[in-house]
C-alpha cells in the first residue's frame, strides 16, 4: 500500500492530484506551520487567455500557527463570479461549476477539512479511489525530524511505500525509508497541453500550471483520469539527471510567473496536444 503526505492546498494543480492516483491513502499534513503567500489559500485559473489568481482569505494567518488552527473565510461572491466569467463557455461548466460551489461553500471552514472535502468531491466526480485523513487527528511523535515523521505516519497507516512529489528529492533519501521497511518513490509528472477554448474559437498560448479547475472545465472526466496517470515513479535511490532536475519547476510553479508557451504545430499537436471536449 502506498502512502502520500502533503500540506493541504486550495484546488491545486493536476500534479498534486497525480499523487492521489499513485497512492492508496493520502494524508493531509495539516499539523505543520502555515505558509503565507503559498498555495494553501490561492491558485490560478484561465481568464482572458491569461492566468488569473484567486484567493480565499485566512483570518489571523501566521507562520507561527499550525494549519489545523486556521480556517478559510467564506468565499466572496466575486470569486464565484470570476469562475463563471472564466469558464461559462467551457464544455464541462454545467457539471463542474456546481461541484466548485459545493466545495467553496462547505460548512466546515477549517483548512484541512475543507481541502479534504474538495479532494473527496473531485475524486468522486472522476471515479478515482483514494482514502484521505488529517494528520492533525493522528497520534504520533511530532518532535522528530520531518523525514522521521513521514516514516512513522506511513508505517502507522500500514504503508509499504511512500510517494513524494519530485521536489522532495533534495530532502529525503531512500536508505532511511528502506530501513523502516518502506519503498521511497518520487513522482515525476509528464503534463500534456489540452485545448483551452471552445470548438471553433481561436486559441492563444497554452497556459499551464493552473488549478485543477481548468482541466476539469475543459476535459471530460475520462480524459482527466488518463492525464492523472501520466507520470513516472522514480526510486528514492535512483540517480538524478538533468531531466529529473527540470521536473522540480513543473511540480511547484511560481505564483508570479504562470507557465505559458506557444501552441504546438499541427504535427506536434497530433502527438501531444489533445482536444478534451
TrEMBL record:
Name the domain of life: Bacteria
Q: Name one Pfam family in it.
A: WbqC
The family database entries (InterPro entries) matched by this protein are listed as: WbqC
Residue ranges annotated as compositionally biased, kind Low complexity, are 256-270
Where do the record's region annotations for Disordered lie?
255-277
* Name of the protein: WbqC family protein
Which species is listed as the source?
Cobetia marina (Deleya marina)
Amino acid at each position: 500500500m502506498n502512502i502520500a503526505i502533503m500540506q493541504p492546498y486550495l484546488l491545486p494543480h493536476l500534479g498534486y492530484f497525480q499523487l492521489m492516483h499513485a497512492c492508496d491513502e493520502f494524508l493531509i499534513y495539516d499539523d505543520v506551520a502555515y505558509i503565507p503567500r503559498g498555495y494553501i489559500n490561492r491558485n490560478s485559473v484561465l481568464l482572458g487567455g491569461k492566468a488569473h489568481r484567486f484567493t480565499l482569505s485566512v483570518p489571523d494567518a501566521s507562520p507561527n500557527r499550525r494549519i489545523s488552527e486556521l480556517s478559510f473565510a467564506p468565499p466572496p461572491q466575486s470569486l464565484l463570479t470570476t469562475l463563471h466569467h472564466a469558464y461559462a463557455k467551457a464544455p464541462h461548466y454545467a457539471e463542474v461549476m456546481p461541484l466548485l460551489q459545493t466545495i467553496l461553500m462547505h460548512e466546515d471552514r477549517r483548512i484541512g477539512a475543507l481541502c479534504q472535502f474538495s479532494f473527496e468531491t473531485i475524486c468522486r466526480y472522476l471515479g478515482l479511489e483514494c482514502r484521505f485523513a488529517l494528520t492533525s487527528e493522528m497520534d504520533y511523535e511530532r518532535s522528530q525530524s520531518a523525514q522521521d515523521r513521514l516514516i512513522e505516519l506511513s508505517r502507522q497507516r500500514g504503508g509499504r511505500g511512500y510517494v513524494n512529489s519530485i521536489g522532495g528529492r533534495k530532502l529525503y533519501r531512500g536508505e532511511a525509508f528502506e530501513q523502516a521497511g518502506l519503498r521511497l518513490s518520487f513522482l515525476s509528472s509528464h503534463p500534456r497541453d489540452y485545448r483551452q477554448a471552445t470548438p471553433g474559437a481561436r486559441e492563444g498560448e497554452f497556459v499551464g500550471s493552473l488549478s485543477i479547475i481548468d482541466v476539469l472545465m475543459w476535459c471530460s472526466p475520462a480524459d482527466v483520469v488518463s492525464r492523472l496517470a501520466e507520470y513516472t515513479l522514480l526510486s528514492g535511490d535512483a540517480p538524478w539527471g538533468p531531466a529529473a532536475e527540470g521536473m522540480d519547476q513543473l511540480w511547484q510553479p511560481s505564483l508570479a510567473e504562470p507557465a505559458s508557451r506557444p501552441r504546438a504545430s499541427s504535427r506536434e499537436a497530433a502527438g501531444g496536444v489533445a482536444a478534451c471536449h
